[in-house]
């Protein structure tokens, strides 16, 4: 069976859950994430978490900061990013910068646990450095890094992390991190590849808003090959958390 047919066969059982509002989605997922971190901490294990940029994670970070800042020992948590725009950390476009403002400044997490992608560095060397940093802090399975949890968003064009429909071969790259370009703005980005995205213990997609309803229909019903469609973890669990508006065409 070809790689794509294998993926199609696997995704027939795609799990999703629909929430009335983005706020309820963010609150439910924040509580679940906090439980996972607490369980790891109870066993004195660290918890490796890869974050996305975008509006839906933003709401999650707000909920984590407001309701769960003191609920876990953040010393146990190592934060990474699935992608970054090639801009300095204080640029309004920086994924790290957004997370820093909304979450990191409000929780007690050591700087040494924050593993940002250096958007201001030379992208060609940064992809190598970041791949090494990921490998140093995660365990390995089948020769690839395993995050405890990866949080993903999805664009209206079906992109996820910074893997876009025009460069979805990055999903099958031999490297762990690659340089990518936004297809419309041409903005340079750094992204993790399929080797990392498809290898964690847990993946959660956070997708909200009616602008995402058509692409959700493509992925769940029409089996359209888009980057987000290609997220099928090698061994872990994947969940799609949607709000009512994003699920409009699949949850009637
Ligand atoms: C980024 C992202 C990207 C994002 C989606 C969804 O840096 O832009 O990591 O993959 O998650 O574009 O973004 P929204 O939630 O804003 O629609």
Description:
This protein is an alpha/beta fold. It has a single domain (26-243), classed as Rossmann fold, CATH 3.40.50.1360. It is 31% helix and 20% strand. The chain has seven helices and eleven strands. The strands form three sheets. The protein has a six-stranded parallel sheet with strand order 1-11-10-7-2-3, covered by helices on one side. Strand 5 (139-141) and strand 6 form a beta hairpin. Helix 2 (22-42) crosses helix 3 (55-67). It starts with a helix and ends in a 9-residue tail after the last strand. The model has no long low-confidence stretch (mean pLDDT 94). Bound molecules: 6-phosphogluconic acid (6PG). 6-phosphogluconic acid (6PG) binds at residues 52-56, 82-83, 95, 153-155, 159-161.
Task: Draw up the topology in text.
Blueprint: H1 3-10, E1 16-19, H2 22-42, E2 47-51, H3 55-67, E3 77-81, E4 83-85, H4 95-102, H5 123-137, E5 139-141, E6 144-146, E7 149-152, E8 177-181, E9 188-192, H6 194-197, E10 202-207, H7 213-220, E11 237-243
Parallel strand pairs: 1-11, 2-3, 2-7, 7-10, 10-11
Antiparallel strand pairs: 4-9, 5-6, 8-9
Bound molecules: 6-phosphogluconic acid (6PG).
């Amino acid at each position: 069976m070809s790689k794509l047919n294998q993926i199609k066969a696997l995704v027939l059982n795609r799990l999703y859950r629909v929430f009335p509002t983005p706020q309820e989605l963010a609150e439910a997922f924040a509580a679940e994430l906090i439980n996972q971190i607490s369980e790891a901490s109870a066993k004195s294990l660290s918890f490796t978490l890869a974050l996305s940029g975008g509006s839906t994670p933003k709401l999650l970070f707000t909920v984590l900061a407001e309701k769960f800042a003191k609920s876990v020992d953040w010393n146990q948590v190592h934060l990474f990013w699935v992608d970054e725009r090639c801009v300095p950390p204080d640029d309004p476009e920086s994924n790290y910068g957004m997370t820093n403002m909304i979450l990191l400044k409000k929780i007690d997490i050591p700087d040494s646990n924050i593993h940002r992608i250096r958007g201001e560095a030379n992208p060609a060397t940064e992809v190598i450095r970041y791949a090494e940093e990921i490998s140093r802090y995660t365990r390995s399975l089948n020769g690839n890094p395993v995050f405890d949890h990866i949080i993903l968003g999805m664009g209206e064009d079906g992109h996820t992390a910074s893997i876009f429909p025009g460069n979805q071969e990055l999903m099958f790259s031999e490297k762990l991190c690659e340089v990518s370009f936004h297809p419309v703005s041409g903005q340079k980005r750094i992204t993790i590849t399929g080797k990392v995205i498809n290898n964690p213990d847990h993946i959660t997609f956070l997708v909200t808003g009616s602008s995402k309803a058509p692409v959700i229909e493509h992925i769940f019903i029409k089996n359209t090959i888009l980057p987000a469609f290609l997220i099928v973890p090698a061994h872990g669990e994947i969940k799609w958390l949607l709000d009512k508006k994003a699920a409009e065409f699949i949850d009637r």
